[in-house]
């Protein structure tokens, strides 16, 4: 799976997982950095408290490459998808992500980081 399909799958997965308040800030910062920042910013920012395995780093690198090559019209379609899936995107700090997807620069958001581990990343 390549290009916009990969990005859509990732955003859909994250949007569906975006439920409790403590994770909202983490996912917003993660998505915002993934969409508008450098790959290193992910590891120094939202993922800083985790040890990311090499396979996950390779996948993140490929995903970031796909995101960086998205056409503006595809980003606009992702905005529409996110608006349909997560109406709360239009409220509070989540609107910052929509501005970034639409091409407007916005400052990063510092948020809470989840304390749970997964097979792909684990706390140090």
From TrEMBL:
It holds the Pfam family Uteroglobin. InterPro entries: Secretoglobin (IPR016126), Secretoglobin_1C-like (IPR043215), Secretoglobin_sf (IPR035960). PROSITE patterns: SCGB (PS51311). The keyword Secreted applies. The keyword Signal applies. GO terms for cellular component: extracellular region. Residues 1-19 form the signal peptide. Keywords: Secreted, Signal. It is found in: Secreted. Belongs to the secretoglobin family. This is Secretoglobin family 1C member 1. It comes from Phascolarctos cinereus. The lineage of its organism: Eukaryota, Metazoa, Chordata, Craniata, Vertebrata.
